[in-house]
Amino acid sequence: MKKNTILPEPYKIKVVEPVRxxxxxxxxxxxxxxxxxxxxxxxxxVYLDLLxxxxxxxxxxxxxGKLMVGDEAYAGSKSFYCLEDAxxxxxxxxxxxxxxxxxxAEHIISRCLIKPGDYIPGNMYxxxxxxxxxxxxxxxxxxxxxxxxxxQSEFLFKGNADLKKLDKLVKEVGxxxxxxITVGAPVNMAGGQPVSIKNLKxxxxxxxxxxxxxxxxxxxxxxxxxxxxTREPGYASKSVKEILLQMCSCTDACTMSAKKDAYAxxxxxxxxxDAGLYEEAKNLCVVYEGLHTYGGLAGRDMEALAQGLKxxxxxxxxxxxxxxxxxxxxxxxxxxxxPLMRPAGGHAVFVDxxxxxxxxxxxxxxxxSLAAAIYVESGVRTMERGIVSAGRDPQTGxxxxxxxxxxxxxLPRRVYTQTHLDYVAExxxxxxxxxxxxxxxxxxxxxxxxxxxxxRFKPAK
Length: 461
Fold this sequence. Notes:
This protein has helices at about 25-35, 60-65, 80-90, 100-115, 125-135, 165-175, 195-210, 220-230, 240-250, 275-290, 300-315, 315-335, 355, 365-380, 385-390, 420-435, 450-455; strands at about 50, 95-100, 120, 140, 180-185, 215, 255, 270, 350, 380, 385, 405-410, 440-445, 455-460. The protein is an alpha/beta fold.
């Protein structure tokens, strides 16, 4: 294979959806009307939508067929039992509670396990996860290894938890004040960087010796399993499915946004091995989501989700092509000198916005500014993962200032082609050449929670 070629798609295209590149003047107008927030753009004004891979994937013909056999019974839907069986087969947990999407699972487990005043360590925060933990009265504590905060570090497992940081927290507050540790694998906010099996085993051994639960954020765990296969010694001959089961065996429960790895457009679940936790989670599911045999999902969605999970691990070619698309775009941008989070991770390419727009102060929101500029330049929608996403400290009210200020270029699964990726790289490369022209942004409107979704901005003076 040549330096920067891409694996052939392990599928053929059966249905297409038209896209349209509107003129630059129209893009400028659309961006202004959206308050310079790419989340507030209308999809009809977007040419290539690389905002997220959550629910934006292309389902297979088999998944579309499953929509027709969904059992829409309110109670005891056979489609739930299909989903339950698929989760047990793919992830290995004993009990499954369906939810409308991943944050539904985060909400339930936070309500089940967190007491006011508790601490929840994790390998870097994720926006919705941390908010649910805080709303339940807990405090998130970051225990990721230091390499995660260095965009130039080539360390292959930047998502690893630092056992010294974890031990320091446990000794300071006591194991009984630790609700659980949440392990994202891979770590979204660190550039889609994976966690090694070696590290996950160490975390598991440490926590189980102290009666601390380990909860996996499994949204893209199949991607993490592939990185273990290709990067960690001793796993090259194992299948992604085998590695995934081994990963999950190191944990006690998982929250899952099935809108990612499962190729589904909606859905999630909470899975666990503890019967007592399962009973409490089922009960809260009825309160917040729906009966525990549908959890806010239609039967047809559970069928598509179950089918997607099986497809995702039946052949390693699926995830191999997915990761290779990301690598291809990463390499294309790197060849153009665009500053990136290194090495190439999963699900997205992360541009180092602080280095890209080095002339902008952190308070001028460089990642938000860059995401807006990318849309105006190309019609490509990306998203900010920096100071805006980090939000405000609930105690001081001041902006959190994360070490990483990134723009995420996210690739939906089975949606875009190599030609699309070439277009993205070309236009971001052009923008980089003219980067000094970019101006910062300031807030006009800021919601109380998860402000990056709905905040509005204006060009800074």
